[in-house]
Amino acid sequence: RVHGDATRTMKFTRGLLWFALFVIGSLLHRLLCRPRWMRRILRRVAAKMYHLEAPPHHVRREVATIPFADGVLSRATVFFPVGALTEAEQQRAVVLIRTPYDRANIVPTAYLFCERGYVVVTQDARGRSESDGDFFPIAHERDDGAATLEWITQQPWYPGHGVVMYGISYMGLVCFAAAGSKHPALRGIMPVLAASHMYPIIFNGGVPALELVLRWSYLVFGLGTRATSALRRVYRGFIWPEQRYHDALNTLPLAEVDRLVSANGEPLPFVRQGLEHTSRKSPFWAGKDQLADLRDPTLPALHLYGGMHDFFLPEMLRDFATATAARAGVPGAAPVRMTIGPWQHWSVLRYTPSAVKAAIAFFDSVNGAETGGLDHDAASPLRVYVHGQSRWVSLASWPPPAVARTFELGADARLVPEAAPSTSVGAHETVALMDAVSDTYVFDPQNPTPSIGGPGFDPANAGPMDQRAVESRRDVLVYTTEALSAPIAVVGHAQVTLFAASSSEHTDWIVRLCDVSPRGVSLNVAEAVVRLPLTESVDLHGGTVCAVGERTWRLELQLGACAWEFAAGHRVRLQVCSGAHPRLMRNLGAGEPLL
Hints:
Elements: H1 5-31, H2 36-49, E1 58-67, E2 73-82, H3 87-90, E3 94-99, H4 107-114, E4 120-124, H5 141-153, E5 163-168, H6 170-180, E6 186-192, H7 199-202, E7 203-204, E8 207-208, H8 210-221, H9 230-239, H10 243-250, H11 257-261, H12 269-276, E9 301-307, H13 313-327, E10 336-341, H14 348-366, E11 382-386, E12 391-395, E13 407-409, E14 415-417, H15 427-436, H16 468-471, E15 477-480, E16 488-501, E17 507-516, E18 522-532, E19 544-549, E20 552-566, E21 571-577
Parallel strand pairs: 3-4, 3-5, 5-6, 6-9, 9-10, 10-11
Antiparallel strand pairs: 1-2, 2-4, 7-8, 11-12, 13-14, 15-21, 16-20, 17-18, 17-21, 19-20
Helix pairs in contact: 1-9, 5-6
C-alpha cells in the first residue's frame, strides 16, 4: 500500500518462493517419519545441507509433561540417540529448546543434534500449542526456564553434565531468560538473532516498531492454533496476509489495533500495555526488558549469532561488549563469542545450517570436547562477514580500529570529502548557517515516507533493497559522492552529524547510508533513528542530541553496525527523512500518547 507496483510484484514473487520452500520442507518432514530407508536418505541429505558429518545415531522419542513452579503443566518431547555412545558423547550436555511456535516445527533441528549424540528436549512455552496456562510474551520465561532445567536434572536419563540451550528469535530470548535465572545446571546458551533487552527493540530510538509488534502478534495470535492448517498459516502469514493485517498497519489511532491482528477480534493485553507504557522505567517493563544481567561474570558460556541486517543486532553487540568486559580477567569465567553474518531476520534458510553447525561445535566445547569445528579463538572471539569482499574476518573487539574518512553535505545534493578539519559551532552561528544554506522537505503523516528494506520483520521487505523508489520522493533528501576511485571498506559504525530544524518539536529523524552502483541501484547499508524530543528511556548507542535553538538541534548519530565495502566506481549516499512506514510508526507531530 505504500510501495510501487514493482515492489509489490517482487514481494509476491518472494512470497511464492517461501511458500514453495515450505511445501517442500513439509513433504520432507512427513517423509522423515516414513520407512527407515527413506529416513536414512533424508538424514544424509540433511547432513550435506548443513555441512555436517554423516549422522552416527538413530533417534528415539518420548513425550513428557513438565510442571512449572506454579503447577501449570507443559508438554515436551525428549529425543534420545540410539546406539552406543562414544566417550566424548557420554560427556555431552542436554540440549534444551523452548518455543512458543509449536515444538512439532523444530523436530528437524532436534534430530540434527540428537543424531550426533545429544539428548534433546523440545518444549512448548506456557499457553502455547499443547502446554497449559496463559501466554504473555516474556513474562514467565525466566521462572519457566528454571523449572524446566530443574526437571531435566531430576530425570533418570540425565547424564549429569549440564544443559545447553539453543534458539532463534523468541526462542533465543528464552535462552537469555533461563540464563537470568542463574540455574547451576545451565552451562551455555546460543541465542540466534536475539538479545538480552527488549525495550530498545520495541522502541527503536524512541520510535515504536509498529510492523514488528503487529506482524509478530498476527503470526502468533491471529492465525489460529495447531488445529489450523499449517499451509494456511504460512500462506496468510508470509505470502498474502489478510486484509485486517494491512488495515492494522494503517489504522489510527492505535487504541483498537490489537483486535485487528488477533484471531477473533479479542484484545491482546501485551500489545496494549506495551504501547501504553512507553517509559522504560514503567513497572510494566520490570522483568520484561532485561532478561539477563550480562555484567555477571558467573553466567554460562555465550555464543551470540546475529545478522548484519537484523533489528536485534545493536543490542546483540551491546551484549557482546558487556559480557566480554565483565568476564575479562575473571578466573574460570565462561567464554563469550559472536558471529555476524549477512542476514536479515527471515533469512532462515541461509543462516540455520551454519547456526546449527556452530551450535554443535560450541556445545562440544562447553563440555571440553574440542572437535575442531569452532571458528573462534580466545584472541579473536568475533567473526564478521564483509559484504563486497565476500569473506569472513576475525576480530578481537567491536568496532575494530579504523581510519576515519569524513564527508560533508554540500550544495546540489552532493556529499563531498571534508576540505578542512571541522571547528566547533556555537548556537547562534548554527542558526545563521542553517538560514543561509539549508535543504528542506515536508513530512505528511497521511502520506508517510515508506520503508524499503532495512532491519525489518517483513520477510519480503528487509535487508539491502533498492532505495530509488524512496529516494525519488519529495520528503527524502539525498546526498551523493562522486564515483569512488578506490574501494572504501566500512567495518564498524558510521557517525553522522546534522544540524536540523523542524516546524514541530515532535519529529522523527532517520539517517541512512547507501551504496549506489554504476547502474544507479541504491542499496541501504545502515541507518539511525531518533524521535524528538528525547525521553530518558531512549538509548542512542553513543549518539547525542543537543538543542541549539528553538526547534533546532545538533544531532550526532551513530548508524547501525555495518561491514561493507563500497567498490571502486560506486558512490556513497546519505538519505535524510522522517519516516519508515510501516516498519516504524509514523510521527503525527502532536506528541499525544500512543493509546
